[in-house]
From TrEMBL:
PANTHER family: ALCOHOL DEHYDROGENASE 1-RELATED, VACUOLAR PROTEIN SORTING-ASSOCIATED PROTEIN 11. Its EC number is 1.1.1.1. This is alcohol dehydrogenase. GO terms for molecular function: oxidoreductase activity. It comes from Paractinoplanes globisporus. The keyword Zinc applies. Residues 21-337 form the Enoyl reductase (ER) domain.
C-alpha cells in the first residue's frame, strides 16, 4: 500500500450545501500514486479549517467534483515520485492550502506567488487530507518543527500561516496596539505571535469561552465588537467571516491604521462612511492565500517560540461532526482529525 494501490477510506464533498451531513460522504477510495516530483503522504493528523466548511457548504464554488477536503495535513512520507531527492520515506512533512503555482508569471517572479492566476489548492482543486493518504508536490511540502504533537502542528499549516500573513499585512508597528475580531483557530495563534512581538492585543468575540482563552493567552482585553476598544488600534485583523465587522473595525482604528481581512470568504460589507471609516489614511486590505515563504517564516517562529495550540481532537470517521461543530461554534480550539 505504501507504493500506491489498495483501497482506503476518506471523505468526499458529494453535494455541496448547507446540510453538512448530506454534503459530505465517507467512501472507499484508491490509495493515490505520487506523480513525478510528488510525495505520497500517510496522514497522521488533518486540521479542520473554516475553508473546508466553505467548500463543503458551496460558499466556495466547486473546483473538483467529489473532492476530498482538508489542507492542514501532518503526515509522513510513504512513497516518493520520480525525481524527488530532498525527502526520504518516513520523513515528517506538512501539506498546506497552496498546492502549486506556475512559477513563471509576473506574480511568482516578484515574490507574490499567492496571487498566481494559475495557482491550485489542496482540498479544493486536488484531494486533501480527510483521508488516509494524500499527495503533495515535494517543493510545496513543509518540514516541521520539533516539540509539537501532530495535532498541534496541523492548525499551524493554514490557521497559523494565514494569521501570520494577515498580521504582516496589517502593518502592526513595534509595540503597537492590535485588535482581533473573531477568536478561533487562526486568531488564537496570531494573538500569540503579536504578543511575542511586544504588541498589546484587544480581542472582540461574542463567545465567553473564547474571551476567557484570549485573556489566558495574554490579551489586554476581551469583549464584544459592539463596544469600542479601550484604546485606538494601530492595526486590526478580522477573522470572522462577517462583512458587518469591517466598518466597526475601521472606526476602531487610529489615524493611519490598517485593517486586514483574513478570510477567503466574507459576507457583504455594508456601505462605508468615508469620514468616519476611511478618512485620515486608514487602510483596508484583503489577504489572499499565502506564499511558501509565509509558511516557512511561521514554522520558524513556532520553532523558536512555543505556541499554545488549543486543539479539539476528532477521529477521522467523525469529520462531518467536526465540520458541523465548527459551523455552530461549538469547538473551544482547532478541530483536528486523526485517522
Amino acid at each position: 500500500m505504501e507504493n500506491g494501490g489498495g483501497v482506503v477510506y476518506g471523505w468526499r464533498v458529494v453535494s455541496p450545501g448547507a446540510d453538512i451531513k448530506s454534503a459530505l460522504r465517507r467512501s472507499e477510495m484508491p490509495v493515490p500514486r505520487p506523480g513525478p516530483g510528488e510525495l505520497l503522504v500517510a496522514v497522521d493528523a488533518c486540521g479542520v479549517c473554516r475553508t473546508d466548511l466553505h467548500v463543503t457548504m458551496g460558499e466556495l464554488p466547486p473546483h473538483r467534483p467529489s473532492v476530498v477536503p482538508g489542507h492542514e495535513v501532518v503526515g509522513h512520507v510513504a512513497a516518493l515520485g520520480d525525481g524527488v531527492a530532498e525527502f526520504r520515506e518516513g520523513d515528517r512533512v506538512g501539506v498546506a492550502w497552496l498546492r502549486s503555482t506556475d512559477g513563471d508569471c509576473r506574480f511568482c517572479l516578484s515574490g507574490r506567488e499567492n496571487l498566481c492566476p494559475n495557482s491550485l489548492y489542496t482540498g479544493w482543486d486536488a484531494d486533501g487530507g480527510y483521508a488516509e493518504y494524500t499527495t503533495v508536490r515535494a517543493d510545496f511540502a513543509y518540514r516541521l518543527p520539533t516539540g509539537y504533537s501532530d495535532e498541534e502542528l496541523a492548525p499551524l499549516l493554514c490557521a497559523g500561516i494565514i494569521g501570520y500573513r494577515a498580521l504582516t499585512l496589517a502593518s502592526l508597528p513595534p509595540g503597537g496596539v492590535l485588535g482581533i475580531y473573531g477568536f478561533g483557530a487562526s486568531a488564537h495563534l496570531t494573538a500569540q505571535v503579536a504578543l511575542a512581538q511586544g504588541a498589546r492585543v484587544h480581542v472582540f468575540t461574542r463567545s465567553p469561552r473564547a474571551q476567557k482563552l484570549a485573556l489566558e493567552l495574554g490579551a489586554a482585553s476581551a469583549g464584544s465588537a459592539s463596544e469600542p476598544p479601550p484604546e485606538p488600534l494601530d492595526s486590526a485583523v478580522i477573522f470572522a467571516p462577517s462583512g458587518d465587522l469591517v466598518p466597526v473595525a475601521l472606526r476602531a482604528l487610529d489615524r493611519g491604521g490598517t485593517l486586514a481581512v483574513a478570510g477567503i470568504y466574507l459576507t457583504d460589507i455594508p456601505s462605508l462612511n468615508y469620514d468616519r471609516e476611511l478618512f485620515q489614511e486608514r487602510t483596508l486590505r484583503s489577504v489572499t492565500s499565502n506564499t511558501r515563504d509565509d509558511g516557512r517564516r511561521l514554522l520558524d517562529f513556532a520553532a523558536g517560540h512555543h505556541l499554545k495550540v488549543s486543539v479539539d481532537p476528532y477521529p477521522m470517521n467523525r469529520a462531518a461532526d467536526a465540520l458541523a461543530d465548527l459551523a455552530a461554534g461549538r469547538d473551544d480550539g482547532a478541530a483536528v482529525l486523526r485517522p
